[in-house]
TrEMBL record, chain B:
PANTHER family: SORTING NEXIN-4 (PTHR46596:SF1). One of its GO terms (biological process) is positive regulation of autophagosome assembly. Keywords: Protein transport, Transport. The keyword Glycosyltransferase does not apply. Gene3D superfamilies: Arfaptin homology (AH) domain/BAR domain, Phox-like domain. This is PX domain-containing protein. Residues 68-195 form the PX domain. InterPro entries: AH/BAR_dom_sf, PX_dom, PX_dom_sf, PX_SNX4, SNX4, SNX4_BAR. CDD domains: BAR_SNX4 (cd07622), PX_SNX4 (cd06864). It comes from the Eukaryota. It comes from Perca fluviatilis.
Length: 369, 458
């Protein structure tokens, strides 16, 4: 566990871990991924890793194990979220290419965020996860104990004296941000729906031009041309829709989970502050009665709270910074896809005009000849 | 909005067919008709201003006039049942072509006309020139509307599109080699008052074929010209395809509208979100504005597309006009067949009476058998009568033959002219549609690029 400032990465000359995830899946067994750990070049900077490269096979429950272990061992830090554990059977095809693809990207992001974290990346559990052939998982007990303890101080009805303003602000921000994420998700879904209905009508529209072709002779080319362009536009629209549902929406949803994780950390911080204040009050009462000095546990608690606050603030900054990057990328990507869609359509219509105008000059010159 | 205020520049054109001009002169049409007898034709140089399809090779334009439907206005008045009503009137402006060509800029003559007067003009033309594919009027009521488009006849956009459609109608008629010489047309363009009376005086309404006669001819005609039957079939198909297309396009427009408008919601949420952000705030806020602009851009795009729909509608209605010409053929052919049949039967009767040989069953024959033959005097009288009827019948058959042949000849010429015009117009319409689509794509790229720049600044 870190005390005071966490060890930085680039500043201390430590090289980050870069991972590459490749999916390995077979129909018979559930999804497992291959995690390739590549220690950027200089292996000596990361002494805890023996080899420069590792390749291990992991299942979703292994990632879950890692997450729980990290939460336990680094309770003051924000652990990135995992994609949803349970997906409704029948609604989502767990073996479809898109689902696998989407999940893999999320898992990759999860690991990268941990690897980027100055404290978490040094966690021994991460090390095992990345290197051990077989993970020796023993979960459950430790978690339950921790839960039990903090529940005591909240269930005991003790309320926080005063949450520092900055943490209140964080909480408020997260609530509003969460709301906005939800709204954006709904808008994106609505757009998908409208686009899908538009696509249906557009296809029908194209066939009307095609069916007219047979009736005409001179107009054959232009009619065929228009039908062709409409078909191209349909294809481009399909691509756009696919992209939105596979790349845009999952990232958006994952941020909702991220917000939840952050809120949890804030709650834990509140709890540790509550615990400290409870002990402090009890100690003060006892002190007044029998003049014993401040017990060590109380001081430890105070340290704990201060540590937590410091870690949290640092993580918050990092989270904000990452969030900014992530959304910049996400929204820019969305804009790019839309631009790309229009470019495809424009190209199709422009080539039609060229074609028709060429034919026109062809006809004119043959007329005068 | 790109309005198609087509004031066609008519060129001074000598007549294409001296024979035609003679025929026109024979009809007693007045001096407004072209009187040149030259039969050579100079190639019509497409007018530099819009609508090249109006100017045809060697066509007879209303060479003296520049025609324009300049404005539309609302009026109130009492109608035929003495009730107050509001209606729209359209200002028709005309100017002598030579004055314009010489660079003088005289004030145009103008008069106001209602839609119903245009209808009257067209009905007159339909009856008077049954061998011509008469240009259609813009629709009376808005149809094929997608939901945001108003179906209200008083809606300013509808009125504007109708104004353009009426001008288009006048230009088509005025550039038609046959129709443009019509006296009533000239009257319509130049004399505001008393025009209706003049039209009624032509007695065209009496000449109109009854619906029933026309329908019965369609069913009972035996030997219609194959080419006309093919043309009729084509007109049915054309009508079917254009109306399908118009319906499908309206549905597409509806959906596209929905897609664009939902993006406006991004504008709002980005704005709200920007309020809680520090560094990201400005970028988000500006991006939101671009999303609003994107959502708003669909209105102009779809308004523009209505012009394409109007072009399709014109040919939807043209299909009806084409079919009318084919049906007229069926009617004249049928009447010829009837007259021929009638003549044959009269001749047969005559033969029977004259020779006493009864070839076919007749009641007269029966009664003769039962009651005895009639007296020779009576028979003679009947034979005489029949001979007169036969002579008449022969005249009738001659008349009907001429009518039928003339119709076929003239109609075939005009149908060919129509086909060429249609091919050219629709081809251009499709190209223009492609141009519109390109413009829409460019706008879309512009908007999203603007938004992207803002996102990059986040």
């Amino acid at each position: 566990m870190s005390v005071g400032t966490p060890r930085g990465l680039a500043s201390s000359g430590q090289k980050p871990i870069a991972e590459i995830l490749h999916p390995l899946s077979s129909a018979a067994e559930p999804l497992s991924v291959s995690v390739t750990v590549n220690l950027g070049g200089d292996k000596t900077t990361r002494v805890e890793f023996d080899l420069p490269e590792y390749c291990v096979r992991r299942r979703y429950q292994d990632f879950d194990w890692l997450r729980i272990k990290l939460e336990d061992s680094q309770p003051t830090h924000l652990i990135p979220p995992l994609p949803e554990k349970f997906v409704m059977k029948g609604v989502v095809d767990r073996f479809s290419e898109e689902f696998v693809e989407t999940r893999m990207k999320a898992l990759d992001k999860f690991l990268k965020r941990i690897a980027d974290h100055p404290v978490l990346s040094f966690n021994p559990h991460l090390n095992s996860f990345l290197t051990a052939k077989d993970l020796n998982k023993r979960q459950g007990l430790a978690l339950l104990t921790k839960v039990g303890e903090s529940v005591k101080y909240v269930a005991g009805g003790y309320k926080l004296r005063a949450r520092p303003a900055e943490f209140c602000a964080m909480g408020e921000y997260l609530d509003t941000f969460n709301q906005k994420l939800g709204t954006i998700d709904r808008i994106a879904q609505r757009i998908l729906k409208e686009q899908s209905e538009y696509l249906t009508e557009l296809r029908e529209y194209g066939t009307v031009y095609s069916s007219w072709v047979g009736l005409e002779d001179e107009l054959r080319r232009p009619l065929e041309g228009v039908a062709g362009c409409v078909t191209t536009c349909c294809g481009a629209l399909e691509d756009l829709g696919e992209n939105m549902s596979q790349d845009f929406l999952p990232v958006l949803r994952e941020y909702v989970l991220y917000v939840e994780s952050m809120k949890n950390v804030l709650r834990k911080r509140d709890q540790s502050q509550a615990e400290y204040e409870a002990r402090l009050e009890a100690a003060i009462l006892r002190k007044q009665e029998d003049r014993t000095p401040m017990p060590v546990e109380v001081e430890k608690c105070q340290d704990k709270v201060e540590c937590f606050n410091a870690d949290l603030k640092a993580d918050w900054e990092r989270w904000q910074s990452n969030k900014r990057q992530d959304f910049k990328q996400l929204l820019t990507g969305m804009a790019d896809k839309n631009i790309n869609h229009y470019e495809k359509c424009q190209a199709a219509w422009e080539s039609l005009i060229t074609l028709l105008q060429d034919k026109q000059t062809e006809d004119k010159s043959s007329e005068t000849n | 909005m790109g309005t198609l205020c087509a004031c066609v520049l008519a060129h001074h054109q000598p007549h294409h067919h001296s024979a035609e001009s003679k025929r026109m002169a024979e009809d007693g049409r007045d001096e407004l008709v072209a009187t040149d007898d030259e039969s050579d034709h100079t190639a019509a140089d497409g007018s530099s201003s819009l609508n090249n399809t109006m100017v045809e090779e060697g066509s007879t334009l209303v060479r003296r006039m520049e025609i324009c439907v300049a404005e539309a206005e609302k009026r109130s008045g009492k109608n035929t049942v003495n009730m107050q009503e509001t209606f729209t009137v359209y200002l028709i402006e005309t100017r002598p072509m030579d004055a314009v060509a010489e660079g003088r800029n005289p004030a145009p003559d103008s008069l106001w006309r209602r839609y119903s007067e245009f209808e009257l003009l067209r009905n007159y033309l339909l009856v008077t020139y049954p061998y011509i594919v008469v240009p259609p009027l813009p629709e009376k009521r808005a149809e094929f509307v997608w939901h945001k488009l108003s179906a209200d006849n008083m809606d300013p956009d509808f009125v504007e599109r109708r104004r353009i459609g009426l001008e288009n109608f006048l230009l088509r008629v005025a550039s038609h080699p046959v129709l443009s010489n019509d006296k009533i047309l000239h009257h319509f363009l130049t004399e505001e008052y008393g025009w209706k009376e003049v039209v009624y005086e032509t007695g065209f309404q009496a000449k109109a074929d009854s619906r029933i006669r026309a329908l019965s001819a369609t069913f009972r005609v035996r030997n219609p010209d194959k080419r006309f039957m093919e043309m009729k079939h084509y007109s049915d198909q054309l009508q079917s395809h254009t109306s399908q297309l118009l319906r499908a396009r309206a549905r597409v427009a509806d959906r596209l509208y929905g897609v664009y408008k939902v993006h406006g919601n991004y504008g709002r949420v980005f704005s709200e979100w920007s309020a809680i952000e520090k560094e990201m705030g400005d970028g988000l806020q500006s991006a939101g504005h671009h999303m609003d602009a994107y959502a708003a851009s669909i209105d102009d795009i779809l308004e523009e597309e209505e012009h394409y729909a109007d072009q399709l509608k014109e040919y939807l209605f043209y299909a009806e006009a084409l079919r009318a010409v084919c049906r007229k053929h069926e009617l004249t052919q049928f009447e010829l067949e009837m007259a021929s049949q009638d003549l044959i039967s009269k001749k047969q009767q005559h033969e029977e009476l004259a020779t006493g040989i009864v070839r076919t069953f007749s009641f007269k024959g029966m009664t003769n058998k039962i009651f005895g033959q009639e007296a020779p005097v009576q028979r003679e009288a009947r034979i005489k009568l029949l001979e007169e009827l036969i002579a008449e019948g022969e005249d009738t058959v001659k008349e009907k033959t001429v009518e039928c042949e003339e119709h076929v000849e003239r109609a075939w010429v005009d149908m060919q002219r129509f086909k060429e015009q249609k091919d050219k117009d629709l081809r251009e319409a499709l190209i223009n549609y492609a141009v519109m689509q390109i413009s829409m794509c460019k706008k879309g790229i512009q908007m999203w690029s603007n938004a992207k720049e803002c996102f990059l600044k986040m």
